[in-house]
Give the backbone structure.
Amino acid sequence: MIRKRVLFTTIAVGASVLTTAAFVGENHPHQAVARTDFARTITPTTPDYLAKLPALDPAPVKEFRIPIKDATLQIAPGITYQGWTFGGTVPGPVLHVRQGDLVKVTVVNETPMPHSIDFHAARLPANVAYRAIMPKDSIQFEFTATDPGAFLVHCGTPPVLMHLMQGMYMAMIVDPRDGWGTRADQEFVLLQSEFYAKDAPGGALAQPDYAAAQEKEASQVVFNGRAFQYKDHPLHVNVGDRVRLFVVNAGPSLTSDFHIVGAIFNRVYPDGDPAHVLSDVQTYAVPAGGGAVFETVFDPKQSGEGLYAFVTHSFADAQKGAVGLIQVGTPKQFATMDH
């Protein structure tokens, strides 16, 4: 038997990314393995959470190490909150794989209380992979990403409502084996979620309000963990770009009625299956725990240069923070939107 092991490392300093790939001959002969440790690969959150979809590594085996840790978050202008996280950020890091990839997961609990992890993209027994991870303990499992789409990953420890309202969620994007059928110029991940926080005087940490969460009375509804951040720091694209948006709704309770003001979605993939594509859609609802893939083209003869707001069209929720801007080109006038 021939055993082969070749290692190489790629470092992207701007995104604080460290990925190691290997050709390992014993368990997966001649297959490249891409390894990412999210204790070292930290998603930038300043000045805004990096919404750009991470590049897809071609290796057919993906290994992810995911630490669970507590962190102080800014969830809205002037409001901080003590969160529970995957990888130290809310949302946690985006996992990007291709349909058919073997996904190997190690989750390490670095907090003083039990947590767990639930992959909506996985087909495997929950009692095996999603059991409670005690403090200072870890769990390992693997699965094949059989279904394409935009999927939620979250903590499933009871009460699940509390663990979600504290920030324990992230997105997993599974590209179709043969692609989405069209080439995108820009790809972004937007994860909608809710916070339930009591105001605190004097700049103190806002306190969790579990009673409000049970009544679905959110204090903030946000994209990628912070209210209004993409109003202040728009997503930038060029005139003529086809933009693909992976929208995942972590909830824990509210629907995301996703819409772009001034544009129409040329394509929507409700479940991520390219065969189920919808055409020319104005608004599409993503339920709590769901995800969908949206495409729009900023055609210079139609939409063109300018500012386009993306929102949940449930405007009571948009007013709580679930609104941002896409800046197409370099418009002369920068429109403002009141908080």
Remarks:
- The longest helix spans residues 160-165.
- The longest strand covers residues 61-76.
- Confidence is low (pLDDT under 50) at residues 1-27, 335-339.
- Helices lie at 126-129, 160-165, 210-214, 229-232, 315-318.
